């Protein structure tokens, strides 16, 4: 019983963080038709922002605020310099963002070195929950991520600006002719997606080993989530990260991390093969 | 755009000249230089395998190193007599290193292209994930050496010589690799210029339209993928015989993306350009990586982005794009249509 509770809590916290990364990817893909391979590095930079702030002695919580801001700026610059030039060459967006990802990761290595850094856990005190002792910081992550995910949903489905974004996703030409500034929207979306990933990185920094490879470690489950869930709506991201996150956590706690990765990947392949448009995708 | 009719011979002449230059290169290099160059040519073979499947078949494979790595491992396992029933035969090793990856590529192709099939980006992401998974598996598989890989793979030998003499000198290794590269180039060029290649180009251009013409596009793609896997495997086998070791990194994600960069920088749509891209990037890397250190990889990433944004055909693509085969040339050379047909996706 206690074991089950612990696994459930682990699953929920991993899934929610994965959701933050995945949502950014889905929105960027849905709106701009850009597959952002550099998204893992946005996550990485978020985590290293916390490391850097810790080195100068700033309190941990400032990192949660600073990381999204930095990443939003990084996103804006990259969108302006690179992404907007390859919008109409779909496959090339993968390559261009991949190049960006290499350059970003390497700059992190140059700045911080290739070894892993550790971030002090700001809430070391565990709490008792349903009979299990659980790290309170993880509970906090869940709360924050859940709150952020819900606000993102509310933004997209309950506000005027969100309606405009969904309009552009549904039909870019039509939205543009109705007077929506799609250019500005692209820019804002890319920055927003980057900020989400950066925030996820900052939040996860205390409970992960912060090293230059951690971005890829998150990028791949995020991609699998998108493929499994479908790219047509944010709901796909929820479903996808739910499936991938659950499978990953459950198998890795029952078995090993390696087995988890192999099982998750095989599961994803089967799902993708059976539902090429994703579970929520409609047949076109 | 330039007028094609005037310089239709330049790519042919340039291609021939480059092969000639590679043929005589050992005359101007010392022993160490020759063995270095042989390694670059091996990477060039690997690059051609990706150029074939991506530039000509339109399948962006982010996991090409899977096949390279499997080839390398099969070669190492055979020659180290881990597969004891072959007695460490290098010939068997090479054959396995070519056929093994081909089988894997075929099966993967069947899974991914069969039915409704995965397209474009989906295929790229799935192959990317596959490379990561294969690398992780190799790291934890005791039989093939786990994290450390396998050391002490014997170098290439010549069958009719005995004892220590049997090991090839660096010049001999160079020419073995050279002729393998030339053979691969010739074979792939023939495929690309055959009617099969035309269908492949059509699939790259518009898969749905090709399907409506009545072609079973999945079978064409699976075949191309299989050929590409076999060639990547051959490159892996040659690599491991030269370096003397295999490690999980050979089938992973990093090498997969590195070869992608070579091919993109050289020119994805032209075999020779991709080949040259690999040689160029590797040479510059060995020349600069000492002085630039960590900055080299960053520079490479930026160069890659710049190539993709500014020169999608790559650095050499335009200069080495061979003229169309005779059967596809319009009776009267019509600039516009010729360009449309050679234009790369």
The largest pleated sheet of chain B is described as: 2 strands, antiparallel
Principal-axes geometry of chain B comes out as globular
| Element pattern of chain B in H and E | HHHHHEHHHHEHHHH
Strand content of chain B: under 5%
Tally of domains of chain A: 1
Could you say which structural class the secondary elements and strand pairing of chain A correspond to? mainly alpha
Tell me the count of domains of chain B.
Answer: 1
Strand order of the largest sheet of chain B: 1-2
Q: Trace the largest sheet of chain A across and list its strands.
A: 1-2
Through-space gap between termini of chain B: 16 Å
**Tally of strands of chain B:** 2
Spell the H/E element sequence of chain A. HHHHEEHHHHHHH
Quaternary arrangement of the chains shown? heterodimer
For the termini of chain A, the CA-CA separation is 45 Å
Average pLDDT level of chain A: 85
Of all chain pairs, the largest interface belongs to: A-B, 36 and 40 residues
Give the total of beta strands of chain A: 2
> Low-confidence parts of chain A lasting 5 or more residues at pLDDT below 50?
none
- In round numbers, the mean pLDDT of chain B is 85
Offer a few descriptive terms.
heterodimer, A: 284 residues, mainly alpha, 74% helix, B: 345 residues, globular, disordered N terminus
């Amino acid at each position: 019983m206690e074991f089950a509770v612990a696994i459930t809590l682990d699953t929920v916290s991993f899934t929610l963080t994965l959701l933050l990364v995945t949502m950014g990817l889905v929105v960027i893909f849905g709106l701009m038709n850009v597959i952002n391979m550099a998204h893992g590095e946005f996550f990485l930079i978020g985590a290293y922002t916390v490391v850097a702030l810790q080195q100068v002695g700033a309190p941990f919580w400032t990192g949660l605020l600073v990381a999204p801001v930095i990443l939003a700026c990084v996103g804006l610059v990259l969108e302006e310099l690179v992404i907007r030039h390859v919008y109409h060459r779909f496959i090339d967006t993968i390559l261009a963002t991949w190049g960006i990802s290499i350059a970003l990761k390497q700059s992190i290595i140059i700045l911080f070195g290739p070894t892993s850094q550790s971030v002090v856990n700001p809430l070391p005190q565990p709490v008792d929950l349903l009979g299990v002792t659980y790290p309170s910081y993880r509970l906090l992550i869940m709360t924050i991520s859940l709150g952020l995910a819900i606000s993102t949903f509310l933004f997209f489905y309950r506000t005027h600006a969100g309606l405009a974004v969904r309009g552009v996703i549904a039909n870019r030409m039509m939205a543009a002719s109705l007077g929506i500034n799609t250019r500005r929207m692209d820019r804002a979306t890319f920055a927003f997606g980057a900020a989400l990933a950066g925030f996820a990185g900052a939040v996860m920094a205390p409970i992960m080993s912060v090293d230059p490879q951690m971005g890829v470690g998150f990028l791949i489950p995020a991609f699998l989530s998108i493929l499994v869930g479908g790219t047509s709506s944010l709901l796909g991201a929820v479903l996808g990260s739910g499936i991938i996150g659950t499978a990953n956590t459950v198998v890795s706690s029952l078995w090993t991390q390696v087995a988890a990765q192999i099982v998750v990947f095989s599961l994803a392949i089967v799902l993708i093969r059976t539902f090429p448009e994703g579970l929520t995708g409609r047949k076109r | 755009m330039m007028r094609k009719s005037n310089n239709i011979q330049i790519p042919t002449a340039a291609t021939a000249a480059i092969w000639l230059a590679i043929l005589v290169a050992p005359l101007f290099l010392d022993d160490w230089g020759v063995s270095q160059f042989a390694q670059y040519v091996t990477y060039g073979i690997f690059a051609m395998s990706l150029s074939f499947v991506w530039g000509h078949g339109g399948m962006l494979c982010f996991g090409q190193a899977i096949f390279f790595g499997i080839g390398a491992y099969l070669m190492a396992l055979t020659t180290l007599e881990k597969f004891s029933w072959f007695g460490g035969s290098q010939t068997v090793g090479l054959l396995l290193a070519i056929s093994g990856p081909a089988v894997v590529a075929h099966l993967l192709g069947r899974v991914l292209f069969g039915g409704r099939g995965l397209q474009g980006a989906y295929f790229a992401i799935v192959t990317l994930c596959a490379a990561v998974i294969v690398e992780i598996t190799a790291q934890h598989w005791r039989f093939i050496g786990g994290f450390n890989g396998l050391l002490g793979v014997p170098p290439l030998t010549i069958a009719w010589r005995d004892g220590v003499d049997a090991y090839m000198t660096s010049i001999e290794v160079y020419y073995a690799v050279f002729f393998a590269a030339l053979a691969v180039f010739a074979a792939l060029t023939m495929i690309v210029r055959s009617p099969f290649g035309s269908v492949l180009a059509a699939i790259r251009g518009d898969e749905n339209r090709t399907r409506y013409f009545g072609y079973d596009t999945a079978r064409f793609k699976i075949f191309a993928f299989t050929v590409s896997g076999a060639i990547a495997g051959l490159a892996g086998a040659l690599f491991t015989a030269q370096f003397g070791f295999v490690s999980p990194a050979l089938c992973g994600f990093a090498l997969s993306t590195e070869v992608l960069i070579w091919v993109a920088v050289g020119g994805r749509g032209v075999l020779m350009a991709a080949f040259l891209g690999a040689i160029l990037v590797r040479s510059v890397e060995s020349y600069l990586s000492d002085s630039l250190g960590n900055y080299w990889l960053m520079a490479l990433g930026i160069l890659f982005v710049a190539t993709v944004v500014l020169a999608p055909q790559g650095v050499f693509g335009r200069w080495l794009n061979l003229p169309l085969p005779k059967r596809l040339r319009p009776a009267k050379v019509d600039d516009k249509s010729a360009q449309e047909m050679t234009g790369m996706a």
